[in-house]
């Protein structure tokens, strides 16, 4: 398969990548809200977008919806004059089906893929190395591995990860191993050209300070400017200012993950006027009344402090 990059991206992704929620209204993709969201976040100094991953409820989208989501995003980025890398979230436990998904999306305006470890079947380390190697061979664009054992049921260990990191088409990992020793060991041993981006929102500052290249954090939908600032300040050696900035928002992840994601984030964005409805698709359900009240109060507090970033 030929490489077919829409735009040249840094070979090793870094900085703040936003795993965009997918807005729905009355059961269908809410196109106006997709456009508004993309415009809104394209105006921020983020480094990339991820579509249809966990936060984007990718498992509930049909092929036509994913294609439309990708097209709308590309249109809005072009209209905004923003060359932002866009990776598509993929997951599955059948290598052949994933190869077909790669083929199906080969001409889409995306720059790469975020592919989760195969879930439910609990393959061996060798099975996962062969799985990702096959996908990397077949993909026309770079792949980031998504290691999230508490969702998939299987952990891609560092030996296997480093073997995969040697593949030129595997450019990084979204690390949600939930094992600090494993994450720090990976940061110590990762080769040049292979990025580690944390997907543990609450550990965003800690992981960056430990040498991570960036983060893919759903919480950054809120207070996005602060997430960007924390990354830049640390990169520029301004540790004290980075920590002070982080302290202003470090409780957000706990609030936004108090119930299954992305319902709390969607409630927030709806209250902030960025999306037309907080709708999620079953088996996800809307936030409880109690959490809705807590989020509403926090929306007001951040709005008053100017940290919300919700200026559509
Ligand atoms: O959408 C994602 O990708 C993210 N996944 C993590 C999860 O699975 O909970 C959290 C992260 O903030 C974004």
TrEMBL record:
Residues annotated as site: Part of a proton relay during catalysis: 54, 120
Pfam families linked: DHDPS
Catalytic activity from the UniProt record: L-aspartate 4-semialdehyde + pyruvate = (2S,4S)-4-hydroxy-2,3,4,5-tetrahydrodipicolinate + H2O + H(+)
Keywords annotated in UniProt: Amino-acid biosynthesis, Cytoplasm, Diaminopimelate biosynthesis, Lyase, Lysine biosynthesis, Schiff base
EC supergroup of this enzyme: lyase
Active site, renumbered: 146 (proton donor/acceptor), 174 (schiff-base intermediate with substrate)
Positions of pyruvate binding: 55, 216
Localization terms from the record: Cytoplasm
Pathway given in the UniProt record: Amino-acid biosynthesis; L-lysine biosynthesis via DAP pathway; (S)-tetrahydrodipicolinate from L-aspartate: step 3/4
SMART domains xrefs: DHDPS
UniProt keyword annotation of Cytoplasm present: yes
Assembly behavior: Homotetramer; dimer of dimers.
Function in brief: Catalyzes the condensation of (S)-aspartate-beta-semialdehyde [(S)-ASA] and pyruvate to 4-hydroxy-tetrahydrodipicolinate (HTPA).
Family of this protein: Belongs to the DapA family.
Name of the molecule in the record: 4-hydroxy-tetrahydrodipicolinate synthase
């Amino acid at each position: 398969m030929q490489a077919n990059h829409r735009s040249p991206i840094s070979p090793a992704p870094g900085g703040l990548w936003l795993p965009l929620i997918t807005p729905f209204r009355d059961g269908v993709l809410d196109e106006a809200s997709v456009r508004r969201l993309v415009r809104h976040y394209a105006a921020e100094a983020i480094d990339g977008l991820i579509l249809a991953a966990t936060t984007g409820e990718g498992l509930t989208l049909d092929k036509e919806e994913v294609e439309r989501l990708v097209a709308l995003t590309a249109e809005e980025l072009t209209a905004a004059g923003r060359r932002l890398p866009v990776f598509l979230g993929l997951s599955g436990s059948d290598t052949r089906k994933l190869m077909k998904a790669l083929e199906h999306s080969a001409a889409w305006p995306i720059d790469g893929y975020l592919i989760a470890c195969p879930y439910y079947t609990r393959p061996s380390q060798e099975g996962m190395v062969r799985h990702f190697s096959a996908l990397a061979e077949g993909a026309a664009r770079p792949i980031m591995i998504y290691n999230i054992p508490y969702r998939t049921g299987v952990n891609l260990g560092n030996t296997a990860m480093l073997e995969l990191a040697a593949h030129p088409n595997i450019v990084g990992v979204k690390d949600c191993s939930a094992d600090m020793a494993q994450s720090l060991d990976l940061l110590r041993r990762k080769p040049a050209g292979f990025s580690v981006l944390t997907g543990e929102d609450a550990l965003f500052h800690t992981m960056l300070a430990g040498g991570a290249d960036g983060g893919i954090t759903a919480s950054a939908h809120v207070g996005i400017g602060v997430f960007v600032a924390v990354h830049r300040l640390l990169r520029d050696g301004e540790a004290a200012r980075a920590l002070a900035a982080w302290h202003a928002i470090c409780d957000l992840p706990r609030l936004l993950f108090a119930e299954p994601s992305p319902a709390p984030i969607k409630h927030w964005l709806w209250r902030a006027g960025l999306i037309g409805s907080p709708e999620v698709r079953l088996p996800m359900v809307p936030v409880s009344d109690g959490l809705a009240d807590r989020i509403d109060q926090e929306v007001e507090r951040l709005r008053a402090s100017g940290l919300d970033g919700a200026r559509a």
